[in-house]
Specification:
mainly beta; six-stranded antiparallel sheet; two-stranded antiparallel sheet; about 70% strand
Length: about 110
């Protein structure tokens, strides 16, 4: 949660949170499920995409594989939803989006 104060104009606020459940199956494999919510009516953090601001919620699930020490491969599916049609596919506006992601992370 955050508040932006404007001189002579009051204040604007935004709200975002994440709920996550993670399960570690072994030293090499784990998975997680997340729910995310974000609401920024006046564009404090994200420029408004409609008269109602930027409002998005979504679910995601991922599978992590620690290939070797300090190298992690993550595969994830994410579903996002908005009350407004802020997403686009084939030049058609829609209010939801599904994406599949794969990434490799290195840490030292």
């Amino acid at each position: 949660y955050g508040i932006e104060e404007e001189p002579n104009n009051g204040s604007n606020d935004w709200l975002g949170f994440v709920w996550q459940l993670q399960w570690k199956a072994s030293d090499k494999f784990s998975n997680a499920f997340r729910y995310e919510y974000y609401n920024d009516k006046t564009g404090v953090i994200v420029a408004p995409v409609s008269a109602k601001g930027f409002r998005v919620s979504g679910f995601s699930a991922n599978l992590d594989w620690t290939i070797i020490k300090h190298i992690l491969w993550r595969n994830e599916v994410r579903f996002l939803y908005s009350a407004d049609k802020i997403f686009s596919k084939n030049n058609v506006s829609k209010n939801n989006n599904v994406c599949f992601l794969s990434s490799i992370a290195l840490w030292f």
